[in-house]
Amino acid sequence: MKGPRRIEYLERDTYRQRRYRDAARALPVFATILFFLPLFWDWEAGTGIRPSVLIVYLFGMWLALISLSALISYLIRFSDGDSRDSPTEGDDR
Amino acid sequence: MISFNLLIVVSLAYVAFLFLVAFAAERRAKRDRGRWLRNPLVYTLSLSIYCTAWTFYGAVGYAARSGFEYLTIYLGPTIIMIGWWWILRKLVRIGKTQRITSVADLISSRFGKSTVLGVLVTLLAVVGTTPYIALQLQSVTQSLAVFAAEPGSGWDGRDFDSAAVWIAVGLAVFTLIFGTRNLDVNERHHGVVMAVAVEAVVKLFALVAVGVFVVWGMAGGVGEMLDRIDAAVIAEWHPVPHRWVGLIFLSAAAFLTLPRMFQVMVVENSDEKHLVTASWAFPLYVLIMSLFVVPIAVTGLDLLPEGSNPDLFVLTIPLTTGNEGLAILSFLGGFSSATSMVIVATIALATMVSNHIIAPIWLSSTQQGAALSGDVRGVIVLSRRLSIAMILMLGYLYFRLSGGGAALAAIGLISFAGVVQVLPAMIAGIFWRGANRIGAGTGIVIGFAIWAWTLFLPSFGPGAVLSEAVMAEGPFGLAWLRPYALFGITGLDPVIHAVFWSVFFNTVALVMLSVLTFPNPMERLQGAQFVNVFEHSAGARTWSQGAARAEDLLIMAQRIIGHGEAQEMFRQEARAQGIHGYLPEVTPELIGRLERTLAGSVGAATAHAMVGQLTGSAAVSVEDLIAVADETAQIVEYSNQLEAKSAEQERTARALREANEKLTAISIQKDAFLSQISHELRTPMTSIRSFSEILREGEIEPEARSRFAGIIHEEATRLTRLLDDLLDLSYLENGQVQLDVARGSLASVLDRAVMAAGLSAGRLVLNRDSTREAVQIETDLQRLTQVFINLISNAAKYCDAAQPELTIRVLDDGDLCQVDFIDNGTPLDADAQVLIFEKFSRLADESKAGGAGLGLAICRQIMDSLGGEITYLPGQGGPAFRVTLRRAAQLAAQ
After folding, report:
1. Residue B477: pLDDT band by 50, 70, 90 thresholds?
2. Residue A80, class by beta-carbon neighbours within 10 Å (0-12 exposed, 13-18 middle, 19+ buried)?
3. What are A40-51's pLDDT values in tens digits?
4. B222: nearest CA in chain A?
5. Residue from the list B68, B80, B85 with its beta carbon closest to the beta carbon of A21
6. CA-to-CA distance for A64 and A72, rounded, in angstroms?
7. What sign does the CA torsion over B633, B635, B636, B641 have?
8. Using CB atoms and an 8 Å cut-off, which of residues 59-78 of chain B contact chain A?
9. How far apart are alpha carbons B534 and B564 in whole angstroms?
10. Whether A85 and B534 lie within 8 Å, measured CB to CB
11. B69, B73, B79: which to substitute to probe chain A, counting the most A Cβ within 10 Å?
């Protein structure tokens, strides 16, 4: 199958939209990394991290990610023009 | 003290309120097509059925036991939600365009509408979800028990099981009313969704209320609370890496594959844009839900006596501190969590069971049995209702038989791990076109088996299903098959261990078999539609609502086998049913016949899947079948069109080529004819002109003058004859000649011809057999005479023998009569035999011929119009012509 013709250079607006989509794609990756981060902390009882720090870190991070996601949701135009991300996906033998 | 009756009254009032909300939502939906209900907030809130009673009550218990690990259950879904662009967006779009009714339908539809896969996933979902429903029933009875245990509750607390029965019955009634109210093709249940959304608000509010009470009411603020946490037992907690990672993965995967989540997220989704809002609003919801879990746990551990059930801290803290209103609110929160989960899960499971198990069985049984006039719709509604009742009964039975308690509490994650077996097939299905049915099916079976062996069966407790010996030493002493330590790996937590191995081998089987086997055309078609969903569907299609009708079938059939054939088939079927017109009742016979007919056009597998899908669930409308049919029909039609066009072009080109050749030949003939005719006219004209000039000059002897005048006359006669011949030929060729049919004997015609030929005596010897000439014929005798004259005079003119002889031989051959004219001159060579009948063809330009060379051409035309023919007869020792004529007047076209 042949994908739709790609346009190499885009108008400013379209370009920006695509970058927002990239951001939407990247966000869960960052989220995963950030959620795994506490595993590398020093959990030695007594000397290490206190649980309250984890609470503040996790909930803070969580809230930050939610805010970013809300921002992206606000910026992104969720409609047509999806064709760009598909041709790479659907190549049949 | 809360009287138990008050609690019952409050609960009943709450339930009544939910019924009202659901009714109102259904009414609104019917009136304005649910526009009012289609808002992102309702969608987001409905997603909150992820938070069941297990999380409402259980999260606190979890935190009390395992510290912050409970957060993993929320972090997984958060990653999925904020990563909506990757998976959810695609799932929702596929759900819309393919009109998916359940997670089993998704997998079945993706892999070639496979019935087997549908059944597999359905069984998996039932096995995975039933314990979870039991867990909800348990949590409600337990919370009731908490109130009952309070002094002065007025209840002896004897019969919690009957309470569970009543709860199950109540839930069944609600689900039956609102879950099967309309066989909406979208499987959208406005009433249920609205009730779930309301319950979402209630449970969030309840948990937050308890949390606020604990943090600000008891601890005295955030700072104090954090200090308390650091001082609590929880402080010794540290994350176990494999559990942390594994549980986040598990919850993320379960979020996608849990039947109830798929139901609210994909099936009930009315607008893809709602996903955008939910992408941040749902994580926010679960954040708030989990925010106060640790404070409540820590407070509970401080406040309540050793050994109290931490799962019920949410209830017991307010009760102990005397906040009865808060306790009731908290109870309603837990009640909401439990009921909404059970309702949605039951609907999702019932859809699967009725579509993928009951309907196919019903269909196959009725096809074999007597001819039933099948009301598919009614059967589906009934089967769905039965499924709902059955699933709730299963949940209740599981609750009773397992005896509740800790074993049941652990079932949450076990249940997650079971349904997660669908994940590899789901993800591969929407991202990898190469994934096929065999791979997906085998993967699910293997994953399911490993899950059952390593987690589900051991979960019943040692000795219950698997003996302690098997747990410790493996089956038959095979240590590497020990349920909690496959391949001798002992360091993992049982849940993570099971999830890892089951999903690993599931995926390996999926990939390997998909690589090694070949999908059928339907799978490939569906695969392309799923993976490339954004290319195939510009936007979500709006589906007209309604179940399978004969008209839909007719439309579908028409699109595949063509209008004429489909209409004829339906008309016949209708006539057989005694119905006038084109629309018969949808009966098993019709479907069977339709399937067979369609198989002729699109192949048996596709036809079976199409018709099977249609009859397998009446709520699945025909449009999705049409979508497939359309695609197939479009491809077929397109290629047919191309073929037809190219064939047509070829035909046109050939016709043009032929026409061109004909025109060229005609043009050449015309040129030849013109040059011939001018030559023929010129020769006598030249003589006439020159002799008339001589005569005009005078002074010519009378003898010479008379000779010259004779020549002029002779040439003028020749010209006249030529023009006569031309005219004659022209008439004959245009078929304008009038035939004068009469009876007569052939002998007399020949006699006349011989006389008219004006043979000079002794010049040509005629050989005739008068006895054979006595044949009666019926034709235009004049014209026939003309032909004979021509032939005889030709023989006289051209015969180059010393003693010319002409043999006239008549052969009476029944219907046909042949007259041969054979002279003893030099035979014609092959080229001449062909040319001799053409205009102006003369064998040698012997002046004695004196004709224009039109004689034989005229003869041929005459014979044509008489329905006979004249041909050259080779191999007779001299020039020979055969005239074939019919004895009876069967004249050719005039």
Report:
1. confident
2. exposed
3. 887 776 666 777
4. A52
5. B85
6. 12
7. positive
8. 67-68, 71, 75, 78
9. 35
10. yes
11. B79
Distance between B497 CA and the closest CA of chain A, angstroms: 19
Q: Which of B565, B542, B541 is nearest to B554 (CA)?
A: B565
Q: Name the amino acid, one letter, at B891.
A: L
* Whether the predicted pLDDT of B674 surpasses 60: yes
Using a 10 angstrom Cβ sphere, with 0-12 exposed, 13-18 middle and 19 or more buried, the burial of residue B5 is exposed
- Contact between B36 and B179 (Cβ < 8 Å): no
Structure-model confidence comparison of residues B707 and B893, the more confident one: B707
Query: What are the distances in angstroms from CA A37 to CA A58, B230, B241, B605, B728?
Result: 10, 20, 10, 51, 111
The residue among B505, B405, B376 whose CA lies nearest residue B453 is: B505
By mean pLDDT, which of B36-50, B141-155, B870-884 is the weakest? Answer: B141-155
**Do the Cβ atoms of B277 and A73 come within 8 Å?**
yes
Cα–Cα dist A69/B805, whole Å:
117
Contacting A residues, span 32-61, partner chain B, CB-CB under 8 Å: 32, 35-36, 38-39, 43, 45, 48, 50-52, 54-56, 58-59
pLDDT at B440: 93
Contacting residues of A for B110, CB less than 8 Å apart: none
Give the relative orientation of helices B494-516 and B437-451 as an angle to the nearest 10 degrees. 160
R_g of chain A, CA atoms, integer Å: 20
**pLDDT tens digits, residue range B394-422?**
888 888 877 656 655 677 788 889 999 99
pLDDT at B371: 30
End-to-end, the C-alpha distance of chain B in Å comes to 120
Question: Which residue in A28, A12, A6 sits closest to A81, CA to CA?
Answer: A6
B848 pLDDT above the threshold of 60: no
CA–CA separation, B20 and B491 (whole Å): 52
**What region does B466 belong to: left with phi over 0, alpha with psi -120 to 50, or beta?**
beta
By three-state DSSP, how is residue B585 classified? coil
The CA angle B287-B415-B398, to the nearest 5 degrees, is 120
B290 and B50 Cβ atoms separated by less than 8 Å:
no
CA distances to B698, B699, B710 from B702, rounded to whole Å, are: 10, 9, 12
Residue (of B529, B98, B275) closest to A78 by Cα position: B275
pLDDT in tens, B525-552: 778 778 887 875 433 333 332 335 676 6
Tell me how far CA of residue B440 lies from CA of B244, B454, B498, B519, B851, in angstroms: 28, 21, 19, 11, 93
Closest residue to B85, CB basis, from A4, A25, A35: A25
Longest dimension (CA), chain A: 62
The arithmetic mean of pLDDT across residues B203-218, rounded, is 90
Q: What percent of chain B lies above the pLDDT cut of 70? A: 82
Q: What is the pLDDT of residues B752-802, one digit of tens each?
A: 888 887 776 667 888 888 888 888 888 888 888 888 888 888 888 888 888
Q: How many CB atoms lie within 10 A of CB A84?
A: 17
Which helix (H) or strand (E) element contains residue B768? strand B765-768
Residue B29 has pLDDT above 80, yes or no: no
- CA gap B781, B759 in Å, rounded: 21
* Helices B781-798 and B855-866, axial angle in degrees (round to 10): 150
Q: Residues of B numbered 522-551 whose beta carbons fall under 8 angstroms of chain A's beta carbons: which are they?
A: 524, 527-528, 531-532, 534-535, 538-539
Q: How many residues does chain A have?
A: 93
What backbone torsions phi and psi does residue B325 show, to the nearest 5 degrees? -60, -45
Amino acid at B396: Y
